[in-house]
Amino acid sequence: MEAVVFVKMLHQALSRHKGGSGRQILRLGNAADYARIAKTIQQSKGVFRKLASVRPLPLIHAFSYRGALPSAFLRRFAGFVAVEEDVAVSVHALPKQGSGSAIAPSRVKRPFVPTGVRAVRAPAVWKHSLGDRVKIGVIDTGVDFHHPDLAPVLSRGVNLVHPRTPPFDDNGHGTHIAGTIAATGRFAMTGIAPHAVLLPVKAFDHEGSAFVSDIIKGIDWCVHHGVHIINMSFGMKQRSESMLEAVKNAKRSGVIIVASSGNDGRRGFIDYPARFPQTISVGAIDAKGGIAPFSNRGKRIDVFAPGENVLSTWPKGRYHEMNGTSMATAHVTGVLALAMAARPSMTPLQAKRLVAAAQTPLKLPKKAARYPGRLDAVRAFRHLKK
After folding, report:
1. Is 206 a catalytic residue?
2. Could you say which of 64, 220, 326, 331 is catalytic?
3. What SS3 class is residue 235?
4. Rounded to two decimals, what is the model's pTM?
5. Which of 155, 157, 203, 283 has a beta carbon 3.0–4.6 Å from 304's, enabling a disulfide?
6. Is 71 a catalytic residue?
7. How much of the chain exceeds pLDDT 70, in percent?
8. Which position among 173, 176, 195, 331 bears the catalytic label?
9. Annotated catalytic residue within 33, 86, 140, 149
10. Is 132 known to be catalytic?
């Protein structure tokens, strides 16, 4: 493919776009074409103004941009490119019913281990592992770097929403997820893997929204920074081949991906990317050990974990209760961090098998369909010894 011709036609196509909110992802068929075109775009940005908004997605040999390519362009390069909509993605959390404002530090018992952390029996294995040196990428809304229970475990991370600024949390969801995974307990709360290293990747804005291309850039960043596990507490209804390619490439690099199933209370359907078999998909249980009413469920779920009335860290040094499969996913990520610290060579496939082997049955009616069980850290470590 002639890179100069391609880039000129791409610029012309984007220049004709009338505006609006449409976004697309354009994937190249091979790495060589992508490398040539990426280099040409970079060299041409000073001449072709519309190329300034084209973002490279090297993990999947693609570009994202605002606009829509005309059919003439797609026909001209048929067989060389694939185009899809760059759709919106949302975090998987619900406000706790009847909840008020966040809880000030002075109003929490110190120290405390949240009920969800105790429910997965993490404290029982802390004598074997605290998650030491396991690097966890949290693709979310950022994190509160000043929270006393999080500051010791936080690495620099990256901000994809506001580049060249730290990934500060302007929503709360990311800080909440981070606390469940690895709060240190140095002030009040202890998370599941308090010696892990958290790398916050801010891909979601203050409303908890992102685009597929933002997630792909986040996964790419995690792969290139040696992350062992990625927590993905978000989802969408629409299948994305670009997202799937990013997940596949991360798995090939040895990265374990844990994803939330969604909060629609649907049977037999879960959101993407949890629906991809390359991830570990997580549903939520309630305080009684049954499936939470809001949780999606079905055969595509790999494991369930606590997701109701989950108390965790919150911006400005506070604490807050939330519901959602997001919260359940953080519990699974934390337990896998404990396991990986004890077994550093663990692969994504081994992690998925470990999750399947480390479950206890859910509390369900006798006539209910068979579902996977709830994650149990003690069972996970028993399995590791085999």
Report:
1. no
2. 326
3. strand
4. 0.95
5. 283
6. no
7. 96
8. 173
9. 140
10. no
